[in-house]
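Example 232, ligand adenosine-5'-triphosphate.
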Amino acid sequence: MLHIDNLKVFHGPIEAVHGISFSVKEGQCVALLGPNGAGKTSTISAITGVAKSTGTITLKSDDLTTLPVESRIRKGIALSPEGRRVFANLSVEENLRLGGAHQKEGLADCIAEWFDTFPILGERRDQAAGTLSGGEQQMLAIARALMAEPHILLLDEPSLGLAPKIVTQIFKMIGALKDKGMTILLVEQNATQALRLSDYAYLLNNGRIVAEGTAETLGSNDTLMAELTGLT
Ligand code: ATP
């Protein structure tokens, strides 16, 4: 589904990611793990077209490399960004409507589907998004990204700043999306939880992939896990 080849990401003169390659197959949840500053958000920003990069980014058979952000969204990339940026003054439903603004028909059905999948959002449909709890805002940010009906969902640190119990709920939600067949690239510092629902994972450090494997292989590597969980 998504193939990244020899990706280098630049912030002005700084090269933050030094030529990484990885793929996400259809229906898979793939985790991109690593500590602060490893280059995870830079990688996501390059995929969405926000950050300057070289290398190739292919989604299905489309080469996205030179396309602007809007075209990449149209081709099927959706992002739930770090810091769950919802429109605080708009209601839950209005936030979802904005996420589905491209849809001429079927918007109401799409909203109903996500209210069905995430009932807490349905219960709070008229509430201002800014008054939701952190976990609910994260859920809304993910549901809003899904309103674009993407081929792949990019999740940037969905567990960041949430209490452990809420983190478990968010990961359950991501698991439910995977069960629905959604293809997911999950960027996380919380390696233990991320590996639990991922098919494959890449460990990024200092802008390079330093380990990769199935969740089972990486999860059973005690030395690596000790390092990774020390970082969470
Ligand atoms: P975090 O979890 O802290 O967001 P990360 O793995 O997502 O970490 P990035 O945010 O991608 O890491 O940062 C990778 C490197 O690029 C870091 O050294 C960071 O300082 C640098 N960097 C990121 N964004 C910018 C920017 N806009 N301008 C300059 N340098 C940047």
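Summary: The first strand starts at residue 2 and ends at 11.
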